[in-house]
């Protein structure tokens, strides 16, 4: 399974960005896809996820500002980020977890496959 993120960039505070993650390779049923980020000097943290049934989960920092969605025909999951803040600056990663259950979508150890990441920088 390969995951390729895109859509990162440098934006000003208050702007929006949409990240994309294209999945290719082995097909799984009921694959959950998560978004994580790692800021400078910080540990990787959960941002948002969608399980195979389409249920979504968000970190408190993302609720109300970020939206995860998918296009099954394109094997692509998106992360729409609105009202970006400087503290959102990080490398954003997507990850895939075959058959992960909803309760562990926030846990990075639930994910078997990771993309290379895309940089998001928000200036003040």
Write up what this structure looks like.
The protein is mainly beta and 124 residues long. The protein has no helices and 11 strands. Strands 2, 4, 5, 6, 9, 10 and 11 form a 7-stranded mixed sheet that branches. Strands 1-3-8-7 form a 4-stranded antiparallel sheet, with no helix packed on it. Strand 7 and strand 8 form a beta hairpin. It is globular. It starts with a strand and ends with a strand. The model has no long low-confidence stretch (mean pLDDT 94).
Protein topology:
Elements: E1 2-6, E2 9-12, E3 17-24, E4 31-38, E5 45-50, E6 56-58, E7 66-71, E8 76-81, E9 90-98, E10 113-114, E11 118-123
Parallel strand pairs: 2-11
Antiparallel strand pairs: 1-3, 3-8, 4-5, 4-9, 5-6, 7-8, 9-10, 9-11
Main pleated sheet: 7 strands, mixed
Helix run count: 0
Structural class: mainly beta
Strand content: over 45%
Compute the CA-based radius of gyration.
13 Å
What is the element string, with H for helices and E for strands?
A: EEEEEEEEEEE
The share of residues in helices is: under 10%
**What is the number of strand segments?**
11
Tell me the overall shape: globular
- The termini sit apart by 37 Å
Mean of pLDDT: 94
Low-confidence stretches: none
Briefly summarize what is shown.
This protein has 124 residues and is mainly beta.
Question: Keyphrases for this structure?
Answer:
124 residues; four-stranded antiparallel beta sheet; globular
